[in-house]
Amino acid sequence: MLKYWYKDFAQYPPGHRDYWRTRLIGHTLLLSSSFFLVLTLLNIFYFESYEYATLDASGFVLSLSILAFFNRTANVNLASWAVTLMVTGLILLFVASVGGYAHSLYWATLIPPFAFFLLGRQRGSLVSLIAFGVCAYIVYNQIQEARPVTFGMGALFNVIEVSIAHILLFRFYEGTRSSAYRQLGERNAKIQKLAETDKLTGLYNREKLDITLEEYVLQSRHRQTPFSLLILDVDYFKQINDAHGHLTGDRVLVQLADSLRSLCREGDFLARWGGEEFVILLPETQLSICVAVAEQLRQDIAAQKFDGQSLTISLGAAQLREDDTTKTLVNRADNALYQAKHTGRNRVVAEAASPHIRAVND
């Protein structure tokens, strides 16, 4: 039943600027048709006021007609004007018909929420000013006539009905605000993820690596804990591209990235540095442990097949020093990788300035 009122329009998906207007139109028409139906029945069977029953029945029919039109055409702007003018017109007709008595003016407080949300600030202001101008004129006539104010069941029902309408309206508004913030947060998270993710492998990219490396270096110095870094490169990767094509090379890199992700320790940070090179940040890890981790990675990768291809990797390791910058740390690891590539490949080499850490070969 509610799917008829809250129809999903393909042209207004969640996140579209008019999505919540479509929801409010459905919400308003459900609310107005329900209210007008109840008021029609009350005026017929309780108050025996057939004049007001006719007015309320007109509102009920108008609500259903606008809903049918909107569901058929999906014209948000026209439906917004139709809903606003219907609500404003019927309220002002009712206020005028009772001369502003029986707390009927309380109904006019419903006009601005509808007008502003559906029509925007400028048009909403215009409609509200006109409506309140009419109400002010009605009140002025009351003062001129100096009629005594009377209270009865009609006034009580007006206060109750409008109060319920306000609660439902502002409950809906709060729901839209919360949903909008949630959607914004999800969208920002998605954008953030795209901005820091390598498109091919799904690993973190160079930009995210640079930021995280700075953070890890500061964290290591603040906590006075060791911090090491690995750079690894696929041996003879150009030969794979030349022999089997770049699509095969891409599949190899994707599968290698998945394997590295599963092999890295919890707490280590893995990123694609560029091409067939990857970087692993190892917080709270001394160089000797870093070399052992690298050797295990080298052996595990050599034992696997990637898109039917055997691979070996070379790795360079370095540990943060007191006088290091991120650049000098990376340079030492890169120099170690260079040594690994030029002394036979398929091996781990620690930074040259740490002779007590020997290279681990096949």
Automatic annotation (TrEMBL):
Domain of life: Bacteria
Keyword Transmembrane attributed: yes
EC main group: transferase
SUPFAM superfamilies xrefs: Nucleotide cyclase (SSF55073)
TM ranges: 24-46, 52-71, 78-95, 126-143, 149-173
Record-level GO cellular component terms: plasma membrane
Pfam family, one: MASE6
Annotated ranges, domain GGDEF: 225-353
EC number per UniProt: 2.7.7.65
SMART domains recorded: GGDEF (SM00267)
InterPro entries from the UniProt entry: Diguanylate_Cyclase (IPR050469), GGDEF_dom (IPR000160), MASE6 (IPR048435), Nucleotide_cyclase (IPR029787), Rev_trsase/Diguanyl_cyclase (IPR043128)
Cofactor requirement: Mg(2+)
GO BP terms, alphabetized: cell adhesion involved in single-species biofilm formation; negative regulation of bacterial-type flagellum-dependent cell motility
GO MF term (any one): diguanylate cyclase activity
Keywords, sorted A to Z: Membrane, Transmembrane, Transmembrane helix
Catalytic activity: 2 GTP = 3',3'-c-di-GMP + 2 diphosphate
Protein name listed in UniProt: diguanylate cyclase
Organism: Shewanella loihica (strain ATCC BAA-1088 / PV-4)
Lineage, top ranks: Bacteria, Pseudomonadati, Pseudomonadota, Gammaproteobacteria, Alteromonadales
